[in-house]
Amino acid sequence: MSGYAGDRTxxxxxxxxxxxxxxxDLGAVLDLYRPNRYPVRVVGDALSARGILHGDVLIVDxxxxxxxxxxxxxRWQDQTIVCEITRNRDGWFLRSGRSGDGDALRPVDGDQNxxxxxxxxxxxxxxx
Length: 128
Fold this sequence. Notes:
With 128 residues, this protein is mostly beta strands. It has a domain at 36-124: Umud Fragment, subunit A, CATH 2.10.109. Helices cover 3% and strands 35% of the residues. A hairpin with a 2-residue loop joins strand 3 and strand 4. It is elongated. This is UmuD protein.
């Protein structure tokens, strides 16, 4: 079996034939060839309001510097969590996104049990 080639059609030529592109290399598109990029699968739906669903694959960058509003992979009290990070005059805080937590902020600065591992830079959905 062969793949689609827009230049080999029967009948009228496709008006999109000039726009047909070849295979898409997701590794290149997502920049997975960099040593600091990793895929991480989401378990749970805490950030569904941000469009991140259970089973999605997050592409994370361990070398990126977090900015307020970024989604990050963090350690919090011996758990690995996906959450939003924010900064105010008191330092960096994690916001879980769970509806039951309200707007609870968890401090990162100076806490031995908290830290940022990576910043999320892309979401891949395998089920629609």
